[in-house]
Amino acid sequence: MSQRPGEWVVIELGTAHGSVDEEQVPGSRHRRRSWRSRLAATTGALVLVCGGAATASPPFRPTAAVPVEAGSSVSVAGDLLLVADPAPVPATLATSAAGGTAGGDADAGLVELRGYDLPSGAERWRLRLPAAMSQSAARVGDLVLVASRDSIRRQTGTTAVDAGTGEVRWNRDDAVLTVPGVGVGLAVDEVRSASGAGRRVSGRIDAIDLATGRTLWHTRVPSTAVAHVVARDPALAVLVLDSGRTEVHDLVTGALRGVGTLPPADYAPDNPRLVDDGLVLRHPDSRPGRRSALTAYNLDNVGLEWSRPDRARDVSWADCDGNLCARTPDGIWTLDLDNGGQAFVTGDGLPWLPVRGSANQLVFRLLPDERVAVASGGTTAAPRPLGTLPAGSRDCRAGDTALVCRGGDGHQLAIFSLP
């Protein structure tokens, strides 16, 4: 999968674990409209001719390039490209390496983080941070939250950096969960588990002002839980404990607004799925002859809204204009959040996969000649083609106005302007 231009994932978590998979401003609903308004004028006249072979879309031409190492950590956050590498050893230490003062050509205790403007590729700033296995970043207003991760992808720290200057504003020794357009996040300790890093949290949970890093309130969970930030007015913190107890807090004040108990389920950041007005849980169905069910609850008192058999148990849901949806090679499943109505729209049988950072609005697929087709309207059965990337393009990430992809040799990031 490392050779693909993005990850084979259709889950839009809605909680940014220091990753770049969600833009931070504006709000999620406004952002979806923003993607459409920017792309509609350009894509309306383009027609996908692909029965799997070719496309009438024009090729993307790179507007700039940034050199990178094969093992560099790369993130895109809004109008900023970030590249992290082991920090070079200062010249005074390098000259004394033979005497044992320095043991190589990089400082084992630091990484160098470089910020580049998009789409120009001009370097804005660089700074040094404590070493980690990898770094990723997410945009929050005028800040970039840089997440440090260990060898199993568990987040071990968060550093807030001024996006314009590279100045460090604050840092914490934990993960920070955010959603687009909300200035308060949840600082949590991720739990190592067989499900993977970031699946559950434990211990103390702090609500923090993202501009300053200041703690607004805190609580503790007795064992483990799944934590969510929900962008509504007022913004909410939703905690789903492993017992099924679900608490809804005012994100700013910590006041308890609702409490309830959910049925046994495989609780994870994508289950239950949080939306503006409620949550949808996938769980075992106790009714005869049924394996699993989808049940919706409101966020006012965690009260039951509706429940229906789960027809799409092998796919993961994403946000689609106020509904939930999931793309499969055969088409799109959609779920009406008002009444649980479920529908399937047939596609052309070829898999479209989401481009990271695009909130599912940009998708790609690999063509037989190794070029990469890119399209908009990622939550529809027939995405609108934008163009094709050169053969060998991989690890693509979308920002506000640019698409950044690693080239075939792994040593260069190509920057492509989006319409």
Question: How would you describe this protein?
Answer:
There is one protein chain. By secondary structure, this protein is mainly beta. The protein contains 2 helices and 31 strands. The strands form 7 sheets. Strands 10-11-12-13-14-15-16 form a 7-stranded antiparallel sheet, with no helix packed on it. Strands 1-31-30-29 form a 4-stranded antiparallel sheet, with no helix packed on it. It has a 4-stranded antiparallel sheet with strand order 2-3-4-5, with no helix packed on it. A hairpin with a 2-residue loop joins strand 6 and strand 7.
Distance between the termini: 28 Å
Unreliable segments of 5+ consecutive residues: 1-56, 93-104
> How much β-strand is present in the residues?
over 45%
Query: How many H/I helical runs?
Result: 2
InterPro entries: PQQ_rpt_dom, Quinoprotein_ADH-like_sf, WD40/YVTN_repeat-like_dom_sf
Domain Pyrrolo-quinoline quinone repeat: 116-226
Pfam families: PQQ_2
Protein name: Pyrrolo-quinoline quinone repeat domain-containing protein
